[in-house]
Amino acid sequence: MSDVLELQVHSLLSRMQAECDQACTRLREEATERSSRLVQEARHRARMRVKEAVAEKRLRVREHCRRVQAEVDAKQRDRRFVELTEQLARGLQLLPDVLAERWQVDEARAAWCRQVLEDAAAALGGGRWRIDLAPGTSPAERETLAHDAARLAGEAAEIFEDGGAQAGLRISRDGACYDGTVDGLLADRMRVQAALLAELGDEESAE
Description:
The chain is an alpha+beta fold. It has helices at 3-103, 106-124, 139-153, 182-185, 189-206; strands at 130-133, 158-161, 169-173, 176-179. The chain folds into two domains: 1-93; 105-205, hypothetical protein PF0899 fold (2-Layer Sandwich).
């Protein structure tokens, strides 16, 4: 082989090797870039799956907490309802004795009589009243009662002691009656229950 031909072959081989090296380099770079891109995409998908899983977990936890809180609230309401029912029953049972005890206190008894007289005047109007009074009042109290009744009714009232009344007084005129005794005050059970519930609610708010 001549020197010229040998140089040409050598040059061709060198150029082919260089092109091969360049091609390999490009392939490696492309492979590296593609691999990096795939890794980034995989990481991104993984992060998104983690975020979705965390969000779903938080949603499940919130929903569970909401259900638990709803159950707790319902149990508390049920328990409070039972407590109020029991307290209401005890209050209704104790009220007659509580009112009877108040009737034994001079100031409370005087206030009771004044209130019943004023309510009777509004309900019955003027005229000749008959007052049936529970035991326990003094002559001075009955005198004050007669004076106040005459002032409100415009006429002197007839006052009788009612030994069957536990406490309070009952005022009647021409067949109409305003009952301010214990039995009369507690006759409207719904009104009494509403008043007791309001009182229990005020006590709970104060706590």
